[in-house]
Amino acid sequence: MVELKDSTFAALANSTRRDILARLAGGEATIGELADAYDMSLNAVSKHVMTLEQAGLVTRRVDWRTHYIVLNPEPLRAAHEWLDLYRAFWENKLDALEQFLARKKGAKHAASNPAQKKTRRHPR
Fold it and tell me: Which one of 3.30.1330.10, 3.65.10.10, 1.10.10.10, 3.30.450.40 gives the CATH number of domain 1-113?
């Protein structure tokens, strides 16, 4: 079974934290650099980073007063592996939905196709 922490999904539940992780996928960043991307205080961004850090999704390196944050992909890998257990279920459901929608679209197209309709002309 996949070793997974609830803190991983709790941290990922927030869109700002997911965006921070996406930014860190491009490489290390300082708290200040991360904060510049958001319309919130440095303290608020720092709290989001602390939540990510507690979940093990990021690590922090401190160089005097500058805090550098780097992505730790291991918890994301564990979450991916856990979600992958359910892939077959969703793929089957999505395939069935796709087939249903294709049939429905085909029926709707046939009903609205003027070449297939019998038109009646009224004399003037």
Answer: 1.10.10.10
Note the pTM of the prediction, 2 decimals: 0.69
How far is it, in rounded angstroms, from Cα 35 to Cα 41? 7
Q: Strand, coil or helix: what is 120?
A: coil
Per-residue pLDDT in tens (0 to 9) along the chain, 124 residues: 455 678 999 999 999 999 999 999 999 999 999 999 999 999 999 999 999 999 999 999 999 999 999 999 999 998 988 888 888 777 777 778 788 888 888 776 666 766 655 555 555 5
Tokens (6 digits) for 72 = 């730790």
